[in-house]
Amino acid sequence: METPKKATPKFLVDKTKSGKNRNWKDKKIRAELTAKHFESAGLQSKAERMGDCANQLVFKQTDEGLKLYQAWFCKVRLCPMCNWRRSLKIAYQNKRIVETINQREKVNWLFLTLTVKNTDAESLPETIKAMFKGFNRLTNYKAFKTSIKGYFRALEVTRNRDPESESFGTYHPHFHVLLCVAPSYFTRNYIKQSEWTSLWQKAMRLDYTPIVHIQRVKPKEKLDDLPIYEEDLKKAIKEQKAILEVSKYPVKDTDVIQGNTVTRENVETVLALDNALAYKRLIGYGGLLKQVHKELDFEDPEEGDLINISEEDEISNGAFDVIARWHVGLKNYVIE
Ligand SMILES: [Zn+2]
């Protein structure tokens, strides 16, 4: 192991334009912990890749702070480091997509949650497969096509960790969907909650009534720091904040690994989710949102580059490098 050259090592501090800390260190610690679980689960090569994820970060020093320039990301589906990068990328892309659509036409935004009954680890892969098929059927129904202009959907799988609960240990796969509708949705093409439920039941060919939620995106209230803006614009910004809440990558590392130690329950979850989510597209766009995603020339945030999050990240070659290396012992990034 390397010893730092100076007696007091300098640690990485990376802040956004608005002063928010980009917490590389915590993500790396979570990635190391997740890698340990992969090792215990017998998934050696993924464990090794995840252990090496973002070991060295090369930034360019710019007037607006540090910009990531070179790094190696493991791209393992459950990696907390990679999923943080994916989340940032999706949030950025969705922000731009929603802005673009809102500028072009008058639309409204809705949140739809589609669920099925909880399932055990064994049937999770086939349940997820059926849900993708069901979602495709749903989007092809006449009612959907008439009322919905476009969507963003994300598959999330959580696990019931409550030992008191009847379904303790089971998995809960569900879709979070952001829907874009014309104002006429509320007058002419309205789909009631009970109709959404029966459409989803039909699409999934279920013999029970699934739980389905539909609601209008409610603008976030707490944004008083925007006095310079007009009321209309303020409302749009607040609405956008709310929209961004669904724009995260659906794999949360706290859903996969609970606590700070390797446990049997966590190892089980890693095995189940790694198996069920491998090679699956967890997020997707449709209709107008898909079209605008393409127009803006955005790449697939699940498979694409995790170094550049936005176009604004492109930097000139002149800027000088700041190199941060992960120090296993100090559990922090040390600046060379
Ligand atoms: Zn990674």
Features:
alpha+beta, 10 helices, 2 domains, five-stranded antiparallel sheet, 38% helix, 10 strands, binds zinc ion, globular, 336 residues
Brief summary:
The chain has helices spanning 24-40, 44-52, 80-104, 124-140, 142-147, 193-204, 231-244, 253-256, 264-277, 287-295, and strands at residues 10-11, 56-62, 65-71, 108-115, 148-159, 171-181, 212-216, 283-286, 321-327, 332-335.
Poorly predicted ranges: none
Distance between the termini: 15 Å
- Strand order across the largest sheet: 1-10-9-2-3
Helical percentage: 25-40%
Mean pLDDT metric: 90
Largest pleated sheet: 5 strands, antiparallel
What is the string of helix and strand elements? EHHEEHEHHEEHEHHHEHEE
Shape: globular
How many helices? 10
- Beta-sheet strand percentage? 15-25%
Give the names of the bound compounds. Answer: zinc ion
Rounded Rg: 22 Å
Structural class: alpha+beta
The count of domains is: 2
